[in-house]
Amino acid sequence: MHSRRPPFLVILALAITATLAPAQQDQERRLLANKLAQQAADAFEINDYPKAEQSLRRQLVLQPGNFVVMYNLGCALAMQGESEQAADFIVRAVEHGFTDLAHVERDPQLASVRDEPAIRGLRDRWPEVLIAQAENNLKDAQRTFAKGYEVTR
Asked: Does this model's pTM top 0.85?
């Protein structure tokens, strides 16, 4: 009995499709994240903070390390009176790269969270937070550009 092998072009097409699939999925995730960000912005414009929260939570699933999403989610929660949870998201935003404490201090949407223990603690240890951020950025750069480069301080 003679077995039939798939033609080379079919195998090549399957290989190309398998290679492109992750890139296409990444593109679709980015597009959906952008759509959710726009929905959240639109909701903020009309003071629909529960809808903003919903869109931002969905966006955070797609972009779990995005400190802008965390910060905005903190704002949406603060505007709904969820001060403790809002403060936690602001702290998470800082842990993921947000470094503008002055903005937190003057953002009217965060007025209700400024006296939360998490925000007071952040304010009290701000110099250490910035040093930790710099260390993390250096580690990221070392991982990214490790080959052929020497790191000095």
From this structure: no
